[in-house]
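Allow me, if you will, to draw on your knowledge of protein folds for a short while. A protein sequence and the structure tokens that stand for its backbone fold form the material at issue. I would ask you to consider whether the tokens describe a fold that such a sequence might reasonably adopt. Thank you for your consideration; the sequence and its tokens are set out here:
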Amino acid sequence: MRDWEKEKTASDPDTEREELEKLAKDWDWHVRRAVALNSSAPVEILRDLANDKVQWVREAAAGSPHADGEILDHLSEDGDGFVRAAVALNHAASPEILLDLSWDEMMDFDYSLSKNRYITQEAVAKNPNAPEEVIRTLSEHGDEHVRAAAVSNPNVPGDVLFKKRIDLSWAVRTSIARSPQISVEILDFLAQDRIQDVRAAVAKNPRTSADSLGGLAMGRDVDIRVKVAQNQSTDIKTLVVLSQDWAWKVREQVAKNPSTPEDVVRTLVEDVDQSVKKTARARLEG
């Protein structure tokens, strides 16, 4: 039977080192895993846990922000794919380790999508330490989720985003539209996408041009208009139009938007919807 109190102590960052060392040798792997997940666990304890017989303990050690190069290098060759995927996600993983793991075709079944996912390669593709050559290679992967992860990388080259803006997968195009590195030109292009999720991501991106936001504000989709109303890059003209939108959720977001002029907010204080009224009053009083 699991000892929840012991697990709580093992995961508490204020637990003394001597106690953590003791708990790291506990018979219950749940306790040992809690130690590995502890943000205060010293590297010496993690080094022992990296050799634990239970994969979930090693996985926790692999994901620790305190894991050093020696631990991550060791666990990158672990026999369990979940452990290797945890290494690939760790921002302390070196470019050399990530290069090696970029060839790891470990798969796990995603029940929500009813398909297998290349979890290690997806993790590598997201890691900001991944070398540019790895990002470029994974952006051409046959699996859409790996490509989507690659274009979401904070260091993805601009030419990769430009090329993949016409990717057949809407998941990839959506990931591009969310990128903080994306150019205004690509956002303008994706604002015309036929898929709602892509346009919604464009509507939310603060780099999107006022013209594209104005165009999206004229669309029939309420969720997209809500995101335009939330975007601080939306110009005053568009916010004024959205302040008269038939959907109260849109008008409410206009009232919240710091870019909305005070006189527009004052008109929303008299709105027929109580939520809009409340939001507008809070904005003026704040």
In short: The chain has 21 helices and two strands. The first strand starts at residue 108 and ends at 110.
